[in-house]
Design goal:
Length: 200
C-alpha cells in the first residue's frame, strides 16, 4: 500500500498502475491531476504562488530556474514561526490554522531538509507535473482513495473531483471542511484506516 501527498500523488498513482503485484491499494492526499486534464481548468483556485510556479514550468526550464533561485533562500531557512507567512496565498484560514506548534515546526524542517543542498528536486518535480506521467490512469486496477479538501489552495478541489472521475477504481473522499494541510493534521489516522481496509 502507498500514500502520495500533494506532488506525491502522481507517484502513488504510478505505483498503483505499474506495480499491481506489489500494491494492493493506494491513496492520494491533495494530489494533482495530469496536465493537461480534459475538462479541468488546471490553475483555477490555486494560490498565486503556485500559479506563478506552474506558468514558469510551462514556459520552460530557464523561467523556472529564475523562480527557484528567488525562492530557495526563503524556504531552505524557514522556521516554524515563519512558514505560514512564507506559504502566503497557498493557505487560507483553514490551512493557516493548522500551522502551529509541532506541525509548523515539522513543516519548516521538511522544507529545510529537502532544500538543504539545492533546489533540483523541487525543480524536477515541477517539470514532471507538466509532462506526461508515463502511465495511463485506465491501467489502475487496485482501489485508490482520493482525498481532497475544498479549502486546498495548493491543489484545488477540482483536481480531486477530476481524479475521482478518471481513476477507474477511485474511492472518493471529497471533504468540504479540509484544506491541503489539515488532511494530514486532522485525518491521517482515518486515511490510513481506509487504506488498510481496502488492502486486506
Amino acid at each position: 500500500m502507498t500514500i502520495g501527498w500533494s506532488g506525491g500523488g502522481p507517484h502513488a498513482l504510478a505505483a498503483a498502475a505499474l506495480l499491481p503485484d506489489r500494491i494492493r491499494a493506494a491513496a492520494t492526499m491533495g494530489g494533482v491531476a495530469t496536465y493537461p486534464a480534459d475538462g479541468l481548468d488546471y490553475l483555477a483556485g490555486m494560490g498565486a504562488e503556485n500559479i506563478e510556479e506552474f506558468e514558469a514550468a510551462l514556459e520552460g526550464p530557464e523561467a523556472l530556474l529564475v523562480l527557484k533561485e528567488r525562492n530557495w533562500p526563503i524556504f531552505r531557512a524557514v522556521t516554524g514561526a515563519e512558514v505560514a507567512d512564507a506559504l502566503g496565498d497557498l493557505v487560507d484560514e483553514v490551512d493557516r490554522g493548522s500551522l502551529t506548534g509541532e506541525f509548523s515546526e515539522w513543516t519548516a524542517s521538511a522544507f529545510r531538509e529537502g532544500l538543504r543542498e539545492s533546489y533540483w528536486g523541487w525543480f524536477d518535480d515541477d517539470m514532471a507535473f507538466v509532462h506526461p506521467w508515463g502511465f495511463e490512469l485506465d491501467a489502475i486496477r487496485v482501489p485508490v482513495h482520493i482525498w481532497q479538501g475544498r479549502h486546498d489552495r495548493m491543489v484545488p478541489y477540482a483536481h480531486g473531483e477530476w481524479l475521482a472521475r478518471h481513476v477507474p477504481t477511485a474511492v472518493p473522499h471529497l471533504l468540504e471542511d479540509h484544506g491541503h494541510l489539515t488532511l494530514a493534521v486532522d485525518s491521517f489516522g482515518w486515511i490510513l484506516d481506509e487504506l488498510m481496509a481496502s488492502g486486506r
